[in-house]
Amino acid sequence: MIDTKSILKLPRKIQITLITLCVAIILLTVASCTTKYDFGKATLDEPAATETVIETEAPTEADIVHPVDASWFNDMAIVGDSVTVMLEYYCDNDPDALGDAMFYCAGSLGYGNSQWDIDDENAVHPVYHGEVHLVEDVIPVTGANKVMITLGMNDIGNYGVEGAFDQAKSLIEKVRAKGPDAFIYIESTTPMLSSMQRETLNNENIRIFNGMLKEYVESQGDGYKFLDFYSVIADENGDLPYEYCSDPDGMGIHFTTDACEKWVEFLKNNV
Predict the structure, then answer these.
(1) Which of 18-27, 120-129, 154-163 has the highest mean pLDDT?
(2) Cα 94 to Cα 77, 147, 152, 165, 257, distances in angstroms
(3) What's the CA angle centered on 40, arms 38 and 44, to 5 degrees?
(4) Residue 185: domain span
(5) Which of 58, 63, 143, 217 has the maximum number of C-beta atoms within 10 A of its C-beta?
């Protein structure tokens, strides 16, 4: 300990020197403490904060939350025959059904005749925005990101099950070639009234065709999905219920409003 009385006995210059030295030591000590503790802030010894980066992947079809709303269908093109035309009429009267889905349909359209030359006098092709187009051009013509094809009724009777299946594969491959990034839904051919079945076009053959189509679509991997509406709309015998048929005295294949409502519900819960 420094003796204050002894310091006072020293010469004046020495006293000043000692006092100056003490003040310098005190200032250095205070400065050191301020740098390390910064009056309660983080010290130099604390690690620097790091930013946590969470990597995410783009959503896939598995990420879809069902049921989807009507707007989900705004970028979907729907290819179909006269059965699907009934769905188009239904959606025209109910904007909450399938939103702004782009219908690309024609009566009597099939997997086979849709591939005929557009100038063929017997050809059947969809009319979209006032112009006739090939089905294989559906994606570039509509700009759709998703396409659903619902055909087969007009093929099984003309080509048989095997021939209809070959035509279906051919058309699907053509659609894919012109829309490599689109998602393709293939929907089952729908049932007919039991009383209207024929030798080749009947519900048994429709079921066989649907089974072959399902196996093919599932073998294609990502970017494809098979939708089995046949099993949902058919009765316990595999036939179209009478109450869901709008033409029981005609072809026995077209849908009522209630059937279309059931169809929309199915799509919203299964796409």
Answers:
(1) 154-163
(2) 17, 20, 26, 34, 11
(3) 50
(4) 68-270
(5) 217
Compute the distance between CA of residue 214 and CA of residue 53 in angstroms, rounded to an integer: 41
Pairing status of strand 131-132 against strand 127-128: antiparallel
Is residue 14 predicted with pLDDT exceeding 60?
Answer: no
Nearest to 114 by CA among 142, 89, 79, 78: 79
The answer to whether position 18 is within a domain reads no
Q: Which of 156, 149, 153 is nearest to 217 (CA)?
A: 149
Using CA atoms, how far apart are residues 78 and 76, in angstroms rounded to an integer? Answer: 6
CA distances for 82 relative to 43, 66, 78, 146, 241, angstroms: 77, 28, 12, 21, 18
The sign of the dihedral angle between the CA atoms of 192, 195, 201, 205 is positive
Within a 13 Å sphere around the CA of 113, how many CA atoms are in the beta-carbon half? 24
Cα–Cα nearest to 103, from 81, 137, 77: 77
Written as six digits, the tokens of 72 are 């989900």
Average predicted confidence (pLDDT) for the chain: 85
Q: What is the CATH number of the domain that holds 206?
A: 3.40.50.1110
φ/ψ region of 228 (left if φ > 0, alpha if ψ in -120 to 50, else beta) reads beta
For range 78-89, the mean pLDDT: 98
d(CA 149, CA 161): 17
According to DSSP, the residues that pair with 146 across neighbouring strands are: 76, 183
What's the one-letter identity of residue 95? P
Instruction: Determine, yes or no, domain membership for 221.
Output: yes
What is the pTM for the complete model shown? Answer: 0.77
